[in-house]
């Protein structure tokens, strides 16, 4: 019997597996691709590792650090292996896998750490009107084509959405000789990190059209992308008349957000949070199903890989406690996102949990210059902190001590705007 | 005249102001001051890109300049790197181009590339 099966061999899975193994458990990690490292392998730009290593690494370098630690721990792992089924029988998880070399296999485990990352929102999910030609792809796919497979996806490019991957691809394609005509962002502010606006757009004079969106897509006779139309939107995202700008492009990159990939949990009756589009968890990142833990982008979308590593290491520690503690009663109270909070994790605080420190991650609903962050229970402010320059593009974390709370009442987190 | 920069040294992205007497404000740490002053005189960037290889299972390998190079030389450096092909095993950190364009920066691999990149399957039950 395996103590923990970690699904996903990217930043999250590696950090969690290393921690669980170090704490004395036997672990099996399963990765779908033929290499460990996950999405970091295609993120060849630098900026990773400043929080953890105090140095700036590229994605592959950051992955390499963790892969080496992982291999040193002699953790069992499978690559080129897809999990095709995951369910629970009594207290045991059954994981069915499929691979070319081993065929269909079945493994049994006491716990699961799901770190399957996220997928990109596509054209269908944001419903852009117009033709359906070749040349409309997500920024992440383009990144893979260029950086791993080695071919360009076009010469004249427009980008919809100012997420970090889109911004980074604007620079990447420019350096490789393409002309990037602009980036349209439907919000009145960018969704990417400031530093990426500077070094990916401003450095190359690529215009950013805030409060703009793509309203039409046209194909040529051979069904390749020929032209897109961009228009301004008002505060409620309605298109404003007579603001059309047409761009002749052969590629439209979509960088319109990531969604946690938790499709493997379909067969398990697990509680979902519509705000994070992932599962609800307690401070151990344990879901409503005992023994099932989720971390990394599968739990919430992070903007820094360093935070994924830290969160996953914490999850590994929690899995160790779970495996050693046979008494799993739970006394959970809800942790609710209040005024100006777009989402938060964990959604529950479990008072029977030995983790007294609760690391809370959240994003503000809008850009807020000065604010007072308040944690409220029974109309009483239990925790308060001043926060400056909050942006939806930047995840915030705070640490709470559960000993300060009453075990029966829900807790709310809110941001009061101050001047 | 005050110039405003957004510091790109770390993800915090501080707004850093430099006035005509080169007084720097708004930076949350010392690195932001160095960055802003440098950005005024001669902006530099680390270049990250890929190099062609002859390996079928890894047609591109990632690389970077080990120091920031002048922003104005980015495209010239890309041209040189794009003419290269790697045809043997090399390791992360290995120098592929020394002192590119006399900038004092080397182009180094950010990933290892081996004759056989197939990792062994470690699990046995
Ligand atoms: S000034 Fe310091 S803290 Fe602020 S962005 Fe620059 S490096 Fe980061």
Keywords for this structure?
heterodimer; A: 419 residues; alpha/beta; FAD/NAD(P)-binding domain; Immunoglobulin-like; 3 domains; seven-stranded mixed β-sheet; 7 helices; 29 strands; B: 125 residues; alpha+beta; CPE0013-like fold; five-stranded mixed β-sheet; three-stranded antiparallel β-sheet; 2 helices; 27% strand; disordered C terminus; binds iron/sulfur cluster; Metab_Enz_Cyan_OpOx_G3PDH (chain A)
3D structure, described in words:
Chain A: Keywords: Oxidoreductase. Chain A: Residues 3-305 form the FAD/NAD(P)-binding domain. The complex is a heterodimer of chains A (419) and B (125). Chain A has 419 residues and is of the alpha/beta class. Chain A has helices at residues 11-22, 59-72, 123-126, 139-149, 164-175, 194-201, 305-324; strands at 2-7, 27-30, 46-48, 57-58, 76-78, 81-89, 92-99, 103-114, 118-120, 136-138, 156-160, 179-185, 208-210, 212-219, 225-232, 245-248, 251-254, 258-260, 272-273, 278-279, 292-294, 332-337, 341-345, 348-350, 357-364, 368-377, 380-390, 396-401, 411-417. In chain A, the strands form 8 sheets. In chain A, strands 1, 2, 5, 6, 7, 8 and 21 form a 7-stranded mixed β-sheet that branches. The N and C termini of chain A lie far apart (58 Å). With 125 residues, chain B is of the alpha+beta class. Chain B has 2 domains: 3-41, no CATH class; 48-109, CPE0013-like fold, CATH 3.10.530.10. Chain B contains 2 helices and 10 strands. Chain B has helices spanning 30-41, 74-82, and strands spanning 3-6, 15-18, 24-25, 44-45, 48-53, 60-65, 69-70, 85-86, 95-97, 107-109. Chain B has a 5-stranded mixed β-sheet with strand order 8-5-6-10-9. A 3-stranded antiparallel β-sheet of chain B has the order 1-2-3, with helices on one face. In chain B, 30% of the residues are buried. At the A-B interface, strand 4, helix 2, strand 5, helix 4 and helix 6 of A face strand 5, strand 6 and helix 2 of B. The complex binds iron/sulfur cluster (SF4). Iron/sulfur cluster is lined by residues 7, 9-10, 12-14, 27-29, 31-32 of chain B.
């Amino acid at each position: 019997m395996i103590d923990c099966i970690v699904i996903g061999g990217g930043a999250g899975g590696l950090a969690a597996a290393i921690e669980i193994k170090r704490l004395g458990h036997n672990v099996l990690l399963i990765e779908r691709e033929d290499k460990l490292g996950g999405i970091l392998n295609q993120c060849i730009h630098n900026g990773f590792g400043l929080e953890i290593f105090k140095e700036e690494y590229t994605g592959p370098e950051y992955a390499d650090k963790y892969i080496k630690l992982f291999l040193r721990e002699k953790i069992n792992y499978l690559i080129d292996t897809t999990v095709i089924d995951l369910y629970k029988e009594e207290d045991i998880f059954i994981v069915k896998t499929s691979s070319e070399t081993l065929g269909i296999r079945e493994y049994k485990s006491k716990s699961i750490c799901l770190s399957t990352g996220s997928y990109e929102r596509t054209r269908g999910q944001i419903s852009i009107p117009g033709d359906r030609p070749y040349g409309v792809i997500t920024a992440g796919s383009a990144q893979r084509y260029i950086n791993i497979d080695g071919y360009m996806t076009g010469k004249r490019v427009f980008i919809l959405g100012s997420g970090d991957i889109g911004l980074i691809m604007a620079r990447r394609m420019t350096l490789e000789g393409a002309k990037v005509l602009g980036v349209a962002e439907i919000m009145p502010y960018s969704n990417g990190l400031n530093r990426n606006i500077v070094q990916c757009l401003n450095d190359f004079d690529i215009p950013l059209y805030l409060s703009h969106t793509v309203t039409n897509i046209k194909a040529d006779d051979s069904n390749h992308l020929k032209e897109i139309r961009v228009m301004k939107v008002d505060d409620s995202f309605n298109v404003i008349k007579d603001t059309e700008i047409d761009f002749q492009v052969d590629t439209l990159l979509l960088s319109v957000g990531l969604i946690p990939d938790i499709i493997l949990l379909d067969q398990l009756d697990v509680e979902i949070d519509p705000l994070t589009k992932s599962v609800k968890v307690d401070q151990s990142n344990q879901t409503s199903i005992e023994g099932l833990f989720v971390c990394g982008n599968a739990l919430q979308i992070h903007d820094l890989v360093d935070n994924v590593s830290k969160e996953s290491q914490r999850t590994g520690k929690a899995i160790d406690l779970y495996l050693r503690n046979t008494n799993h009663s739970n006394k959970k109270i809800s942790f609710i996102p209040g005024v100006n909070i777009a989402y938060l994790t964990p959604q529950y605080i479990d008072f029977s949990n030995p983790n007294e420190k609760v690391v809370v991650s959240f994003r503000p609903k809008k850009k807020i210059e000065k604010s007072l962050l308040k944690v409220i229970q029974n109309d009483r402010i239990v925790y308060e902190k001043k926060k400056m320059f909050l942006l939806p593009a930047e995840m915030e974390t705070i640490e709470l001590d559960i000993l300060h709370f009453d075990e029966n009442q829900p807790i709310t987190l809110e941001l009061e705007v101050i001047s | 005249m005050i110039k405003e920069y957004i510091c790109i040294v770390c993800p915090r992205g501080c707004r850093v102001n430099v006035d005509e007497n080169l007084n720097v404000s708004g930076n949350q740490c010392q690195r932001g001051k160095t960055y802003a002053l440098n950005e005024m005189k001669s902006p530099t960037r680390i270049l990250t890109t890929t190099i062609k290889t002859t390996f079928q299972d890894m047609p591109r390998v990632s690389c970077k300049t080990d120091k920031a190079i002048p922003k104005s030389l980015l495209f010239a450096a890309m041209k040189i790197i794009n003419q290269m092909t790697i045809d043997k095993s090399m390791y992360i950190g290995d120098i592929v181009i020394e002192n590119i364009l006399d900038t004092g920066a080397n182009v180094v691999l950010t990933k290892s590339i081996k004759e056989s990149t197939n990792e062994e399957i470690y699990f046995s039950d």
